[in-house]
Write a structure and sequence with these properties.
This protein starts with a strand and ends with a helix. Helices cover 36% and strands 18% of the residues. The longest helix has 15 residues, at 82-96. Helix 2 packs across helix 3, helix 3 packs across helix 8 (218-230) and helix 5 (157-168) crosses helix 6. With 290 residues, it is of the alpha/beta class. The protein folds into 2 domains: 4-149 and 204-287, Alpha/Beta hydrolase fold, catalytic domain (Rossmann fold); 151-199, no CATH class.
Length: 290
């Protein structure tokens, strides 16, 4: 793919981490964008979005959080938590000499962005929170806990597609089969025998299983206010989301009146950022940033 470079950097513990680096199109240099995926996802979630943003004149880094994609697995599963991930993102920025960036965070990626703002607010120039906030709905939390890190019997790519439809089907009621197959290629990789396997370390769910995160946290709300009141922020919500309810979104907008907001119709948790409503909101938001 033109303009794409594979990057590696080391975490504080010495793990090798991976990111896809998309060069900006020509023109005046603008703030770079760092895209961070959700709990069981990887950098390939942004394989369509990242080039689209890069074409708007911004360098884009789509990361594989430790334990996912081409990043190393952590030998200690208890390190799989937002504060660790946030430190990894700062290590990436430091390794590339990036002082400030716009962050696009889907689900867990949004929580990592909140933590980044707590650790080093000047590094966060602006944020796009994709279907996530400082509070989550119990229904969505239970659904994710029901499949994340759990063993699954996958024999071929048809099984991989069926698995995604079981775990994510209600979020994408209008998705065509071809798109499900494309999503499977983002979610699975083939092992040495050519059998698809989920592209993440099952251990990522260990902290989640040992101590279920609270549905609502005062600290999380403080972190959200710190970010959304001090930095330009866009909240995207899937109309059918079972994780970020309409009521939570209303509370977030009241807590940060200047925050931009857009709802993506006929999509649940989480929008793929390829939907027209999501693209329009992101393009308008980015156009206002340096």
């Amino acid at each position: 793919m033109t303009g794409l470079v594979e990057r590696r950097w080391r975490s504080a513990e010495g793990l090798w981490l991976h990111a896809r680096d998309y060069a900006a199109s020509g023109g005046e240099a603008r703030l770079p964008v760092i895209c961070i995926h959700g709990l069981t996802r990887n950098a390939r979630d942004f394989e369509d979005v990242a080039p689209w943003i890069a074409a708007q004149g911004r360098r884009v880094l789509a990361v594989d959080i430790r334990g996912r994609g081409r990043s190393d697995h952590d030998p200690d599963p208890m390190n799989y938590k937002p504060v660790t991930y946030a430190r990894d993102m700062l290590a990436l920025m430091d390794s590339l000499g990036i002082a400030r960036a716009v962050f696009v965070g889907t689900s867990m990626g949004g929580l990592i962005t909140l933590m980044l703002a707590a650790l080093r607010l000047p590094a966060v120039a602006a944020a796009i929170l994709n279907d996530v906030g400082p509070e989550v709905a119990q229904q969505g939390l239970d659904r994710i806990a029901g499949y994340a890190g759990k063993p699954v019997d996958i024999r071929d790519w048809d099984d991989a597609v069926a698995y995604l439809k079981r775990t994510m089907g209600p979020a994408f009621p209008d998705m065509a089969d071809a798109r499900w197959r494309a999503l499977a290629r983002r979610s699975f990789v083939e092992n040495a025998d050519g059998v698809p396997r989920l592209d993440y370390d099952p251990g990522i769910a260990r902290p989640f299983a040992d101590r279920r995160p609270p549905r609502r946290s005062i600290i999380a709300w403080l972190l959200f206010r710190r970010l959304a009141r001090r930095r330009p922020t866009l909240l995207l919500r899937g109309e059918l989301s079972d994780l970020l309810s309409a009521e939570i979104a209303v509370r977030m907008r009241r807590a940060a009146p200047a925050m931009h907001y857009a709802e993506v119709p006929r999509v649940g948790h989480a929008p793929l950022l390829e939907e027209p409503a999501a693209r329009a909101a992101i393009e308008t938001f980015l156009a206002k940033l340096p």
